[in-house]
Design brief:
346 residues, alpha/beta, 7-stranded parallel sheet, 16% strand
Length: 346
């Protein structure tokens, strides 16, 4: 067996990247070759069977040059025409099986998702895959709307968590902020509209009325950075919010471990790896209810500032109730491997 994965490769270290890397590490541990073609703008020199093509033509050249039995694509966000043409090219590669994992919590409820039918180009392309992996029940229904046969759909959750890389101490700039704030709230997310960061920024001011030394750490980057920074600077308590950009995964885990609360406020979201990491570490989590949060999460309605404030103050005052933190998700990766074996057996 030889596997080729296409998708985002870290950095940054998001949920899609985590799933891709976990699959690769499992395969390598079994002595199975696994190459990766990175599909993001991040660039570095090729090495260790990780490739960083600069153009779509370079991607196609790699597809014709590399050796593999299975192509596994990882898409997040949306099913753009560019990604669909890439998917079709992969499905047309001879003597190989194709798998798609679509990592998107919000797509089924988006306008594009609501327009799903078998007659669309998206539906045609999705039906060419030997298997499609849905990471939640809503995506399972979406694939059926596109006309994908039930026998080709697999529900496999994407999370696989390892805390082995957790740093022993915080990076210096974070350590200084943590020393001067108690309690400390943290969020790890993209600086994108769907993560509703203005809600956290606004609520911190009200939390500080009761906890005057409270601070908020925002880890991540994205297209809304200028707007988030501007909103922070508009607050009288701006110095108590640290917008620190991307942090290495090991440092982000340590920041979660050192915090009093982990926040995940979203307009739409999937099975967030950072939520599961926080629960496994033991940091209380407050997250918008999206219908798929793991046990132990303190749920709030979408964009409800009063509920967020009350829940923060309740946990800081009373503590979070003891609940199971869940497993590491290792079985999920084994299920992907078994799917590969099933395909090659056919």
């Amino acid at each position: 067996m030889r596997v080729l994965q296409l998708g985002p490769y870290p950095p940054p270290h998001g949920g899609v990247q985590t799933n891709l890397v976990a699959i690769r590490q499992f395969l390598l541990s079994q002595g199975i070759p696994c190459s990766v073609i990175n599909l993001t703008r991040y660039r570095r020199d090729d090495g260790d069977d990780i490739y960083y093509p600069k153009t779509p033509l370079e991607v196609l050249k790699l597809l014709t040059r590399l050796r593999y039995d299975i192509i596994h694509l990882h898409f997040g966000g949306n099913l753009s025409p560019r990604l669909m043409f890439l998917a079709l090219a992969c499905c047309l590669m001879p003597r190989s099986k194709t798998v798609l994992t679509f990592h998107s919590g919000g797509y089924p409820s988006s306008e594009a998702g609501k327009s799903a039918t078998p007659r669309t180009f998206r539906g045609f392309v999705l039906r060419q895959f030997d298997r499609v992996i849905s990471v939640n029940r809503e995506l399972e229904k979406l694939f059926r709307k596109f006309g994908v046969a039930a026998g080709r759909i697999r529900l496999i959750y994407p999370h696989s968590i390892s805390l082995d890389s957790l740093d022993s101490s915080l990076p210096d700039h974070l350590a200084r902020f943590y020393r001067s704030h108690n309690p400390t709230l943290v969020t790890v997310s993209g600086l994108e509209p769907e993560y509703d960061l203005p809600l956290q920024i606004d609520v911190l001011g009200r939390v500080r009325e009761r906890f005057p030394d409270a601070g908020l750490v925002i880890i991540g980057s994205g297209s809304q950075e200028a707007g988030v920074r501007e909103r922070i600077q508009s607050k009288a308590y701006a110095e108590h919010i640290l917008l620190c950009g991307d942090v290495p995964h090991s440092g982000a885990l340590r920041a979660i471990a050192e915090s009093d609360l982990f926040l995940r406020t979203t307009l739409y979201d999937g099975d967030s790896i950072s939520v599961r990491e926080a629960l496994l570490i033991g940091t209380p989590v407050i997250a918008t209810d999206n219908g798929m949060r793991p046990d132990g999460t303190n749920l709030i309605p979408c964009s409800d500032s009063e509920s967020l404030r009350r829940t923060i103050e309740r946990i800081l005052t009373q503590g979070a109730p003891e609940k199971p933190s869940g497993d590491t998700g290792a079985r999920n990766i084994e299920e992907v491997f078994e799917l590969y074996q099933e395909l090659l057996g056919e």
